[in-house]
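WARN no homologs supplied; continuing
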Amino acid sequence: MALFCCALPLSELVIESREIGAIKDIAVRTMPCRVHRLELAAPDVMIISLKLPTTNGCSFSPGKYIDILMKDGKRRSFSLANAPHDDELLQLHVRNYPGGTFSEHVFTSMKEKEILRFEGPLAPSFCARTRTNRSSSSPAHRLRAD
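OK structure emitted
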């Protein structure tokens, strides 16, 4: 097992992976949710558990995020911190940043049962970089870092 987001190969290798075809079938929606639980994980980190309406689920795959839609029209993006199979509650980890409008609200006045709106699940954008060993064009000499 390896975390390919931060692993560096020590020798030549070929990485094979399965493509998840169902990802493209997950619809992005705007939905309401209710703050189910607020848990202080560290002095500057709050875990927010969001409960979705019973009629709407939120299917997602690893690496997805949601945008919290604030009343002033601004958005605040958060990675989904729970596993996709554990989707009864969506979990966000919010760091308290000085001057952060949403994080300030979370740490000073957000209450359980508060209603929020979000859009998601959204896919992160990334730029693939390819490093090639100049002495060979074999795929085994290429590392793709996403």
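Residues 132-146 have pLDDT under 50 and may be disordered.
OK
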